[in-house]
Amino acid sequence: MEQREEEEEELVKKKLRDEKESGKNSSWVDLEPLLLECSLQMRSGELIHQKSFGLFEAMSAVEIMDPKMDCGCVTGGGGFGETSSLKEEDENEDVRGVRLLKRDDDIIAALTSSKEMKVVVDMLIARENSWHVGNALPPTVFSCLYLKEEALKKLSSLSLSSSHAWPMRAFEALMTTTLPFVGLIKKMVEIGDIFEEEDFNPHDYGLKVPLPEWMQRKESGAGVTAADVLDGDACVAKYEEVLKEGKDAYGDSELYRRICLRFALYRAFKRIADVPTEENGKRIKRDFEEASATARRILEEEDIKGISSTNSDSNSNRGEINGGGDGDDTKDDEEHAMFDASACAHALGNSPPRVVELFTVKQSYEYYLKLLDELDVVIERLYDSAAATTTRTHLELSSDDFFRKCRDITDRDFLALSRSVAAYVSTVGGSTDSHLGVDSVDLCLRSVFAQVPEKVRVDDSEQKLSSFQRAPFEYVASEIKKGNYNAVTVTCEDTGAQTDGDPIEILATFKDECQRSCSFLSRAYFASPSRRRRKLRRCLDELSHLQVACSHVDALGVASLFLKKNIKNGNDAIDEEKVHEFCARAFQLWASRIVADAQFDILKVGFQCELYKSYELASVYWYMDNLVVHALNADQYIYEAFNCNTEEVTKKSMDTYLEANIFRVRSNAAQCVLVALEKVGLIKMPKRTFTLATAEARFFQRFAHFQANLDPVPLFWDDYEKHVRGYEKRPAEILLRLAHGQLQPLIEMLSQQIESLQKKMNNKKNEATAAADDAEDQKANENIASLRAMQCLASLTATKTKCARLSATCKLLGTLAEDDLRGTWTVDVLQPPFSSSSSSSSHEEFKDYDVFFALSASRKA
């Protein structure tokens, strides 16, 4: 066998030699002279001599055997080094990359015109945005020679000279403010703490990246806080001075536009880093609008197709951001002399070399538009400044509302920087232990008391409901200090001894657990899907501690004492016995719902990460169905306690009930279909030699971490056997017909919901047309309500379509005998694709992340 392989290999080599000698294959190029000339410049133990490409890097590249890692051999740029040119006039030069102007005087002298300055600024912005998508700082931002400390000093001195015109001062302002802007973004990403290095690399590698002196508004000596975080900012003062000076003479110039764009972006990010307020949110929206308009004007009015940056083959998301642009836009041009990718490569040390792919200038401005659209969604969702009539006010915001907003952002395919900003705003918001400027424990306390319907609360004139809404924790602490609490017995986990609990200490422990749990949970939502699943699993341990703290707070009687003061006596709509039961476990009930939501999200993210095999789907749907039932039972428990004598239910609860029941019907139908296909052998089962071959072992692997929490009660294999495996006793055709019968009433109900929603939208549209003189705020509120109605309509329509297709397939297959179905039909279980095929980033875009599969059935040939 070996001799035969050697003979075949020799024949192939001979054929290639013959083709080369005869010239039949024109693609052959003789590299021997080039390699010989390169080897003359090499030192011992090196492939090609680069300042940061020594023996360690050379051997790493050989060991990895990946040409993308071998940046020393990359030509045409794309690595830490640049193009290695071996023309005749360079025979006596050491091969160290592109020949650059190293002296500071020569660097400054290269600025011959405002057009040249504009080109440098565009290429610098392209490199900065390339850093945003996972590349390191040394080969991107710090490749610009104008950012060297000596060059910046020279630029500053020239800009102060009266002999130099406004373009030089504008260029100097852009260069000197680049690194502070990079430092601001770097700091926000690090505090958000959800990044992965392949998505965003915040490390500065020891280079001088100035971090912001302050992230929130300054306080004067008298304790007065500044009205705007931009007050006293040196970069802002420089931008304003330059823009004011050049407005008349250069207001329509290309360089002026770039100053305006950078200033708007700096203002937006600086204000995002500040404490979130409604007024701050409005300012940020205006900054976004100015930056988007400027970037769009540059793309539409200027010819930037011919300007490109060095790029090479890589697995970056350049194509996603580019959106499938013209092929000419990504064509490599000659590298600019003022950019040296190896200038700061020494900072990378002995780390394995990486190929760097840079945005073209056009892609860079398209990236800005995508980023601004995504950040616009983040601010709109998290700042609560969009509409007072459609969202809760800032004082009423609860953790339930907050996590709902987080999930809404999570369901969008955002860039790493956008998700990092969302994590920063949600987990910091002005201090290390607050959400959106609101303490985490206040959000949690409001979540508990927000479950009480508004109609059973008393007027604020007699009670202290407004005090509680402003500062719930302070209100509860003051009540405890007055002695308004129940005695609590605490059991020591180590010794088992029981002691009288200190109410202040119990409340402090509850506060700590709320802050820790909420912080971890919000960060988990904004992480990438794979990391989000791991973070959510770790959150379950933290939430188990929160549940214990909640049980102690329930024992203090905080909820019952508060409700007695704030609910009218003798209200016929209240069942006193059930209200008392609710008060006794109000915080535990809230915590169990948070845990159930986290567990549901873990299973949902599993679909995004494509973790589940077809034979596992039945158990996953079954567990998700039980989590939905738990949430429904909790809601029903509250409604019965406070609405026992009325059928009126809030719209929010009706929407929740409708969504949950839709999920339950689809889940039951899906389980019937999967069991039927497994019975006839149309679902491929794992080999028995596999470690987790048994169904029980696979079940334990998927759901073992849920057992860390006692509420909701964890489910085990015996429960699954009893409920799902019971379907195996029925024939496959009966199960398929059962699934069809379950889906038909759901399809009819969805049709009614869609028709009703369309009528409401048409009526709203007619009313809006009639009221042409409405206030601007009211129109904005109506637009938001209309957008949400359109998203709801799209979701219902998509659900109806999928249910109808599955029902029709089940009806067809249900008419076949098992032998006929097994022998003559091919059925594929198609899990939902979670990756978006569209590159559009509009904040009005709706994406349907449905976890239910579809069936593809075809007769065998």
Automatic annotation (TrEMBL):
Residues 509-722 form the NAA35-like TPR repeats domain. Residues 307-319 have a biased composition (Polar residues). The keyword Coiled coil applies. It is found in: Cytoplasm. Residues 11-22 have a biased composition (Basic and acidic residues). Residues 747-785 form a coiled coil. Belongs to the MAK10 family. PANTHER family: GLUCOSE REPRESSIBLE PROTEIN MAK10 (PTHR21373), N-ALPHA-ACETYLTRANSFERASE 35, NATC AUXILIARY SUBUNIT (PTHR21373:SF0). This is N-alpha-acetyltransferase 35, NatC auxiliary subunit. It comes from Bathycoccus prasinos.
